[in-house]
Write a structure and sequence with these properties.
The protein is an alpha+beta fold. The protein has 5 helices and 4 strands; from the N terminus they run E-H-E-H-H-H-E-E-H.
């Protein structure tokens, strides 16, 4: 049975809330700090597919780097945005929770229950 994997920045409040819920629920999970262990392009594409999202949906458009790169106004392609996410991890919304073929962007953090339901059903 696949584990739950959380892609996150551990210093952020939303990520800490998700960690607390997972810890209290007793499920087996891995935490990936994608600032120290960057997510490769193919993996970002896979996560987007599992979440049913496009790259612009996962983009932190208000980040200083996004503004400096003028990402929103440039009308970049899906691949161009993903390339920027690989290069500048601050551009990725977080946390992303994955379990097998399912994934959710846990914003708000209560969305984690969608994955926990999948985890309980497959247990």
């Amino acid at each position: 049975m696949p584990k739950i994997t959380v892609y996150q920045k551990p210093t952020r409040a939303t990520c800490r809330k998700v960690y607390a819920v997972l810890s209290e629920s007793g499920v087996d999970f891995n935490m990936v700090n994608y600032y120290t262990d960057p997510i490769p392009k193919a993996r970002i594409k896979e996560l987007l597919s599992k979440m049913g999202m496009s790259a612009p949906d996962l983009l932190r458009a208000n980040e200083p780097i996004a503004k400096a790169l003028n990402v929103v106004r440039k009308k970049l392609s899906e691949n161009e945005i993903i390339d920027l996410m690989v290069k500048h991890t601050d551009l990725i919304l977080r946390p992303i929770i994955e379990k097998g073929t399912e994934a959710v962007l846990a914003r708000p953090p209560e969305r984690i229950w969608e994955i926990l339901s999948v985890a309980k059903e497959s247990a």
